[in-house]
Amino acid sequence: MIRYVGSRLLTSVVMVLLSTLVIFLIANTVPGDPALVAMGDMAASDPAQVKAFRAEYGLDLPLWEQYGLFLQRLVHGDLGISISSRRPVLDDIVDYAPATLELATIAFILSIVVGLPLGVLAAVRRDSWIDHVARAVSLIGVSAPTFWLAFIMLAIFYGQLDWAPGPGRLDPVSFPPDRITGLLLIDTALQGDWATFHDAAAHLVLPSIVLAMATLGLVTRTTRAAMLEALSQDYVRVARAKGLRRRVIVNGHALPNALLPVVTLGGLAYANLLAGAVMTETVFSWPGLGRYTFRSAVTVDFPAIMAITAIVAAVFVLVNLAVDLSYAMLDPRVTKR
Amino acid sequence: MSDVVILPAMASPRARRVRRYGLPILGAGIILAWALAATFAPWICPYDPNFVDVAQRLRPPSAANWLGTDALGRDVLTRVIYGARTSLSVGLIVVLLGGAFGTLLGAAAAYVRGWAEEALMRATDLVFCFPPIILAMAIAAALGIGAVNTAIAMLVVWWPKFARLARSLVITQRSMEYVEAAQSIGFGPGHILVRQIIPNAVGPLVVLVTLDLGNAILVFAGLSFLGLGVVPPTPEWGAMVAEGRELVQQWWVATFPGLAILTVVMGFNFMGDGFRDWLDPHARSR
Amino acid sequence: MQEAADLEAAKQGDAEPLLRVRDLRTWFLTDAGPVRAVDGVSFDLAAGETLGIVGESGSGKSVCAKTIMRLLDPPAKIVGGSIEFRGRDLAKLDEEEVRAVRGREIAMVFQDPMTSLNPVLRIAKQLVEAMTAHGRFTAAAARTRAIDLLRRMGVASAQAAVDRYPHQFSGGMRQRVMLAMGVSNEPALLIADEPTTALDVTIQAQILELLRGLNADLGTAVILISHDLGVIANVCARILVMYAGEVVEEGAPEDLLTDPRHPYTWALLHAAPRIDAEAEDRRLVTIEGQPPDPRAWPEGCRFRARCPFAIDKCAEHPDLLPIDATRASRCWVTQAGGALHEPVRPQPQARDAATAVAPQPLLEVRGLSKHFPLPRETLFAEQRVLRAVDGVDLDVMAGETVGLVGESGCGKSTLARLVTRLHEPTGGSIRFAGSDITHATQAEIRPLRRRMQMIFQDPYASLNPRMTVGEILTGPLLLHRIVDGQAAARTRVEELLGLVGLPRQSMQRFPHEFSGGQRQRISIARALALGPDFVVADEPISALDVNIQAQIINLMVDLQERLGLTYLFIAHDLAVVRHVCDRIVVLYLGKVMEIGRAADLFARPLHPYTRTLISAAPVPDPRVERTRRHVPLKGEPPSAMNPPSGCRFRTRCPVAEERCAVEMPPLLPAADGQLVACHFPGRI
Q: Which site from A201, B18, C239, C672 is most exposed, i.e. has the minimal number of CB atoms within 10 Å?
């Protein structure tokens, strides 16, 4: 088991390095010039200034040296200096990550806590109202653009009804808590600042629902299909022939089998949440990694792009490892090594 | 739910009919309507999509402007209809080109086996390391803004899933008894691929293409929304939502283009699910 | 009927039967109209009795069982009749009341043990919950009882086995677990729905033995459902024969199987070849046509259209009427009291073609082996191989039929694919018609494909679903330039269809429009299209109903005589092999155990494995069955990945000695033309 995880982690490191190389090559073979973009038109017209800028960020070195430098720094935990913010990329990420982490965690929990039971109920009570609700939810989840859902929710619950607060993590009048973890709910709770806690929680409601929708749709749809599949299996008929209660058959026999395809959604859910975060954060003016990523991309902020790539890929590889391990735990047929 | 039904074995006949015929036909109808509207946009639209009339800005829906006007006084209905041209064609190009490339690569890899297959699978792993929109975003940003560049960026991330599906389909088909029967008659690999394997593998690919068209349109709209899709003032749904996203009170500016995306994606979903049910007689319409 | 039932009850010394089914009707209310799967079934079952229900697929026997258990969901509906069990009508109970009966008073064992156990739950949990669900045992007591029951069912090291997962068990072991689960609450009735159909014949014998033992020891009444009269006769004291949703004959096996009084029973009995009798002619007695459509049963007697005895009165629907005290039949012809005559079998023709000429070997196989490398578990793990075929010598003479028998996993299908060169051999040599084809490329072998063809097992998988029958059959003709142009190909395809007994209109249709038997005819036509002289048939009838099996066998025998074919016939059914083959090769774990002429091999099996295989196959005649010597076979076949040392069969052999573990016995001539690989030939 430990050896298996070890070898998986080792392959993961290779995958992450390869993916940074891919991004590095793509970003270098395409025409955009980071120096020109970052410096603006005025400064870029002065060749000496451009030269100095390039030297500062190592852009004048040969490609392989640039990449080698990146790797060398990476080993030492140095992600380089962002071209656009002119701060260490690591500092930027530490600043922006908690907002996204808080939002994405809640959205993830929401999509599991709602999606799983909804899918199970829809399958067990096929063609009842709850099945129709589940179908509608999953259809909207997979069909509606996240950015549009964000707008609609904001327009209705903030613009029209005024039930929810507007964009941002906190009201402008609230004082942000001292930074401990950067997660507002935890920081305010630790400091006993319940008024700000409520404010932060209220601000999280709309964006987390919006962000959860795509994943929620996926989870509901997959759970429903997997439950229907499991309920049609012979072992369910055997369980009925044993005289088991319906609840036991559904929860004890069908559900453990139906969970298997749901677990494999992990990687997809991660990708969904990340992509959704970019959109959601844009509409809700959320100071998170999604917006930072987007800004780095449009400004061709080389060090930032590389760092984010490495992190995104690394987390993705870890998510997949977690998926495989939990699958092996749920399914005895997978040999445990 | 009555007491007699213990566990669901089959949908009710009416629900089954609706699902089997109703929704796919509805989906096809939606797509056909959008395709016609996009094709004949200049003839059916009341205005020029780029005609700016600041005096008429942010008018709510009315008899003159059924879906209202935007911040520059352009007719929202006209721009939504013109927007279908961009969305549908980019979706079609990305899925058909990416699909064809991925399918050929995957099928060929499964056929030759060995290190080529292994290399291809690792390459798809690599692309799968990134959420498509993130990778597309980086590429689109680097290439510069424009529908063509965005389509190219999407192509880079689009082919792997087709390569994987095609590979697994070819591998499944190859072990079928009718393929063995063709071999025992003496047919060569070419005939077996073209006459035996491809006709039986094409169904799942059609399903994936259909479902994926909606997906591609969604991703493209997302990139456009972020400002990476089309050059203004080209009418495009994602970009239109972006233009209206601050206008919470003038909801019509952003709502209708978004609804357009929703309907198209739903249409492709209905069609794809329908194809899947028709192809798989055992799936009793889930 | 009532009279007969009363007599039956009186005989059992019990006024009230355990189960009294009256005019039961279970229909599937589909969009295309009601499918009347069970349509007026009545029978009684006394406590402790063993009742067999036999019939072909679609006869309603399985639906009948599930109806008793109330396991059917919409669109299935009980539209009429009653199921009285211990004074209550099960058909009228609500879900909660039915639940108390299921598993507690009536238990059921299903056909496929591979899918009947929940793959993610431990055996212990699945057994324990069956007991605790009815509140008769505490969890701890149930666990102890589960271990005891597994031991009783013959599961080795039950204490450890109970904590394993289903995938760690073989099919036979899983069926033992299912039986343990079935009897765990000491039910009054155990329904077994084709419990051995998915199992090998030696395992089947073990399971049937268990079933008999449970009935004898625990007094549990048993309803055994099967398509195989031999299996039923082996266990049951009374038999119901079902056809088209109703019971057509009822009686004790001694009467029903020796003197059938319904033409359908008669047909079932004579369509299946018997392992205990040598046939004079290889053709079997078959009845025409297909079972009727359950959406519209025919007027009058439902069997009339296929009945060789039908009279005018059959236009009127007969009741199930008593013939004598213990039996009843739904037939006008035998109402008068007459028996059905023995079938007129065609006179055996002298098979001079094969015997007159000195036999020429058409296929010579020497030391043939095929090892499949298995995927490595980790990068550094040892490469494991599956020795599917491991050193086989075999000759097939021109004009003869050689049977290849063995249990699943013995390598018979792999061998078929090696001699037809669908697989590349790992070692050894194959000569076909004088040329060495061991490592011939596909292009080199193509000319020989005209002479060597194959028929596949699964009629649903062996025909390309996207091609019409015409396309399937013209393809080979055009490829090998047997005909010039489409028109000539068409003519030839019509001839081929005629040859296998299909209408020429079949050309434009797709495979899914045909039944299993018809598809197998198409598959045969495809094999014959090239005019081969050697045909490898890989289990060509194992997926078919008994009457359809007989039709296909007759077709193959006819074709052999008309076209002078040589067959390599692969099957697991010994009776069929005995019936159609000249010589038989017995395969076990990739090795040949015994080769001999069919008659000799069955009269005097020299290898213990052959002996046990023959004794495990049931005979549909209780009188014969009582006189047969049974050699029970221990355990299950070992894995071909890790075969035993020395003789492969030694781990299950009743006469094995130390020497067998050390020394692999060579295949040597033992008696007149019989070859056997055993250190102690003929010891049992």
A: C672
- How many Cα atoms sit within 13 Å of C632 on the Cβ side? 8
* B6/C457 CB distance under 8 A: no
In a domain, A202, yes or no: yes
Question: Reading across the β-sheet that carries C534-538, which strands appear in turn?
Answer: C452-455, C534-538, C566-571, C401-405, C583-588, C591-597, C674-676, C668-671
Task: Tell me the two tokens of residue A254.
Answer: 């069908």
Residues of the domain holding A249 = 89-298
Q: What is the CA radius of gyration of chain A?
A: 24
Nearest CA in chain B to A149: B258
The reply to whether A280 falls in a domain is yes
The answer to whether residue A62 sits within a structural domain is: no
Cβ-defined contact of C71 to A237 (cutoff 8 Å)? yes
What's the CATH superfamily of B65-285? MetI-like (1.10.3720.10)
Distance CA B10, CA A330 (A): 28
Which residues on chain B are in Cβ contact (under 8 Å) with A19? Answer: 126, 129-130
Q: Which of B2, B17, B21, B177 to probe by mutation at the C interface, max C CB count within 10 Å? A: B177
Tell me, yes or no, whether A30 lies in a domain.
no
A-to-C residue pairs, Cβ atoms closer than 8 angstroms: 84
pTM: 0.85
Q: Which of A239, A240, A243 sits opposite C134 (nearest CB)?
A: A243
- Cβ-Cβ contacts under 8 Å, A30 against chain B: 139, 142-143
Q: In the sheet that C19-30 helps form, which strands lie side by side, from edge to edge?
A: C33-45, C19-30, C76-85, C88-89
What is the value of ipTM here, to two decimals? Answer: 0.85
Can you list the alpha helix ranges (DSSP code H) found in A89-241?
A: 89-124, 129-143, 146-153, 184-190, 194-231, 234-241
The angle subtended at Cα B65 by Cα B64 and Cα B68, nearest 5°, is 145
Tens-of-pLDDT digits for all 286 residues of chain B? 333 334 444 556 677 777 777 888 999 999 999 999 988 888 888 888 887 888 888 788 888 878 888 888 888 888 999 999 989 999 999 999 999 999 988 888 887 777 788 888 888 877 777 777 777 777 777 777 788 888 888 888 888 889 989 888 888 888 888 998 998 888 888 888 888 888 888 888 888 899 899 999 999 999 889 888 888 888 899 999 988 888 878 888 889 999 999 999 999 999 998 888 787 654 443 3
Instruction: Name the band, by pLDDT with cuts 50, 70 and 90, for residue A219.
Output: very high
Class of the C2-105+187-335 domain?
A: alpha beta
Q: What's the structural domain count of chain A?
A: 1
CATH code of the domain in which A136 resides: 1.10.3720.10
Q: Coil, strand or helix: which one is C618?
A: coil
**Domain map of chain C by residue range?**
2-105+187-335, 110-186, 467-528
For residue B183, give how far its alpha carbon lies from the nearest alpha carbon of chain C (Å): 7
Mutation for B interface: A146, A151, A234, A280, most B CBs within 10 A = A151
